[in-house]
Specification:
Length: 216
């Protein structure tokens, strides 16, 4: 039971004090499957449509067998590298959900279940990590679009582009506006809420202030 409570709390506030907390309902402070559903449905919709487009391209002869193998193996290989190693280091290791030493995997709304390959770093992301993350997420979202475009499947490309925009917009309003990984380039949590949270997380606050962050 004690371990379960720890998993749910990413701050110094006791579990029974969450209802009175100043950031309650304003941040995704505890794992909730609904947050994962909101995050993953737009991504899965885009992926399913992309795979359907590739299958159509294969059947119609626009994409041959060797190209299909290269596309799938290359993208799947990138996804494993990106989520388990690259993003895991540059982004996830700075998130308070990464802090629990007893857990071998992350228990957050976005990357639930990935192995914690790095040590938790409560300090904000540095410029290099932010640039790397932007490059990585651009490949993640852009590779399927590029494949469809150069395969001449412009209708599929257009629809996938719309689905990708929907994903970004939904993520902006439903996920990034409440995510406690504040230094992520996509994060848009208001500063007053960030400050309130840091007052409840002494380890993260100390690391941020050492990097020059000032609470209002």
């Amino acid at each position: 039971m004690k371990k379960e409570i720890q998993r749910q709390n990413i701050c110094n506030v006791e579990a029974n004090g969450c209802q009175q907390c100043s950031v309650n309902g304003k941040l995704m402070c505890k794992f909730d499957i609904k947050d994962t559903i909101y995050f993953i449905i737009p991504v899965l919709s885009a992926w399913i449509f992309w795979v359907a487009g590739l299958i159509n391209g294969f059947i119609s002869g626009r994409i041959n067998t060797v190209q299909m193998i290269f596309i799938f193996s290359g993208y799947i290989g990138f996804l494993i590298f990106f989520f388990q190693i690259w993003e895991n280091k540059t982004l996830c290791s700075h998130c308070p959900y990464y802090a629990f030493e007893d857990d071998k995997s992350v228990k957050c709304y976005a990357n639930y279940g990935i192995y914690k390959a790095w040590k938790y770093n409560p300090a904000p992301m540095n410029l290099s990590e932010k640039i790397q993350f932007i490059i990585g997420i651009s490949i993640f979202a852009g590779f399927p679009l590029v494949i469809l475009f150069f395969a001449g499947m412009y209708i599929y490309f257009g629809i996938l582009l719309v689905l990708s925009v929907i994903w970004l917009v939904s993520m902006h309003f439903l996920s990034c506006s409440k995510c406690p990984n504040f230094s992520c380039p996509l994060n848009n949590v208001p500063k007053n809420i960030v400050d309130d949270y840091l007052r409840h997380n002494t380890i993260m606050r100390k690391a941020w202030e050492e990097q020059g962050y000032i609470l209002d």
